[in-house]
């Protein structure tokens, strides 16, 4: 297990750094269309509050499949198929800032990822767990609460996420984590709650065959790539499994297929 503060955010910063000004953020893609001789991408530019158009010979669509299926004009069958089969779980994530170290109680040493037995949450990870600085001090705990569908959450988790006040999630968090850490509420200075309506693809047996993403590569050199005309697709969704390695591989393969 290799962890570091900032999580995957650190990785994306390193990937973005060499791109410099070529990277344009704050643009929401609303339309991708194959036109004669190229691809048009229309995006809403948040800074200028206007629609901008990009033209390219080829486009790698690295959007979640359910978003891609909405913005790609005349979505190709492989995309429509993937969007119809990949289901996403809603998640709530809360970051708890602690002004001092938690009491080190007897028993097993705290891990990076700690799950409280018998609870609904997936426990928490400690941002300072692998720090080389041994001084006991405050940290940030990230608490994860998947919202199904599961044995615990049969209802509409996405609606719950939308409608439930943040105070309810705060209370759940404090109740759950106070069991192993009774001193946590007194140490907490700030709690940041994030609602992810479509957090991660739900992997299940047979999903890859249903997505059909393995079948679109024209030859061995393009193995693993998902190509339809001038569009290539890259997102962890195409692996049916939400993890950085899959996202990276999908992006790498899509880029390499254009080289
Ligand atoms: C709570 C949580 C914890 C996780 N923990 C881990 C972990 O510990 N380790 C791990 O390996 N993975 C983890 N993952 C999974 C990991 O975050 C994903 O697998 C990875 O981010 C997928 O990368 P991606 O580039 O395929 O897609 P995304 O990260 O989903 O990137 C897609 C991008 O497209 C953007 N976008 C969407 N619509 C539009 C639009 N219309 N126009 C422009 N941009 C748009 C989105 O804002 C987003 O930035 C976690 C995920 C969640 C939700």
State the main characteristics.
2 domains; alpha+beta; FAD/NAD(P)-binding domain; about 25% strand; single chain; binds flavin-adenine dinucleotide; Polyamine Oxidase, Chain A, domain 2; 3-stranded antiparallel beta sheet; about 260 residues
Outline the fold blueprint.
Blueprint: H1 8-16, E1 27-35, E2 38-45, E3 50-56, E4 59-61, H2 65-71, H3 77-85, E5 88-98, E6 113-114, E7 124-126, E8 139-146, H4 157-163, H5 166-177, H6 184-187, E9 188-201, H7 207-211, E10 226-228, E11 231-233, H8 244-256
Parallel strand pairs: 4-11
Antiparallel strand pairs: 1-2, 2-3, 5-8, 5-9, 6-7, 7-8, 10-11
Helix pairs in contact: 2-3
The protein binds flavin-adenine dinucleotide.
Give an overview in words.
The mean pLDDT is 91. Helix 2 packs across helix 3. The chain has two domains: 117 residues, FAD/NAD(P)-binding domain, CATH 3.50.50; 113 residues, Polyamine Oxidase, Chain A, domain 2 (Alpha-Beta Complex), CATH 3.90.660. The protein is built from eight helices and eleven strands. The two termini are 33 Å apart. It is elongated and about 65 Å long. It has 259 residues and is α+β, with helices and mostly antiparallel strands. A hairpin with a 2-residue loop joins strand 1 and strand 2. The site of flavin-adenine dinucleotide has 20 residues, from strand 1, helix 2, strand 5, strand 9 and helix 8.
């Amino acid at each position: 297990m290799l962890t570091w503060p900032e999580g995957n955010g650190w990785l994306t910063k390193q990937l973005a750094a060499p791109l410099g000004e070529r990277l344009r953020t704050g643009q929401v893609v609303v339309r991708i269309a194959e036109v004669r001789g190229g691809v048009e991408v229309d995006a809403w530019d948040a800074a200028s509050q206007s629609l901008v158009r990009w033209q390219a010979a080829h486009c790698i669509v690295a959007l979640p499949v359910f978003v891609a299926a909405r913005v790609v004009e005349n979505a190709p069958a492989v995309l429509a198929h993937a969007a119809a089969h990949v289901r996403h779980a809603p998640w709530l994530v809360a970051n708890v800032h602690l002004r001092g170290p938690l009491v080190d109680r007897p028993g097993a040493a705290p891990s990076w990822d700690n799950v409280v037995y018998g609870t609904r949450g997936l426990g928490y990870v400690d941002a300072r767990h692998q720090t080389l600085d041994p001084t006991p001090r405050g940290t940030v705990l990230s608490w994860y609460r998947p919202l199904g569908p599961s044995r615990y959450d049969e209802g509409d988790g996405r609606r719950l996420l939308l409608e439930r006040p943040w105070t309810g999630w705060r209370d759940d968090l404090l109740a759950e984590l106070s069991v192993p850490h009774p001193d946590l509420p007194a140490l907490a200075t700030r709690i940041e709650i994030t609602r992810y309506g479509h957090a991660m693809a739900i992997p299940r047996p047979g999903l890859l065959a249903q997505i059909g993403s393995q079948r679109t590569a024209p030859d061995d050199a393009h193995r693993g790539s998902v190509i339809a005309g001038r569009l290539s697709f890259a997102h962890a969704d195409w692996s049916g499994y939400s993890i950085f390695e899959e996202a990276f591989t999908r992006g790498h393969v899509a880029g390499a297929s254009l080289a």
